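User:
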Amino acid sequence: MTTAEPVRLGVQVFGGRDSRETQRALRFFKERRVPIHLVDVAAKPPSAGELRRFSQRLGTAALVDRDGRRFRDLGLAHYRLDERELFERLLDDPALLRLPLVRYGDLISVGAEETTWRAWLQPPRPKEVQR
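Assistant: Predicted structure:
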């Protein structure tokens, strides 16, 4: 009888091949031998449903790269966009996204969040016995 290893979830990374933050995420998970599925947003932007998942959990404003060149070039700092308008902009122009968008099962993060990723990979602690 063989003992099967526990199934380890992989991460889905939405990022750009030329993004330093995306490269940090890929290196982080690769060093820990976590299976990685990279979605290059320049070649295949995230679907509306996938982007909505991040938006609902973190807020649409958290998905915007306010320090990025594209944000400055469009002059969006001077606009007052509501959540819906901002979401539509992100769907139309993935260059506005703050990368990487990382999904690990039901857990998500935006940007290079190594502390968060480390917490995701920690084995669950055994429950304490109450007396």
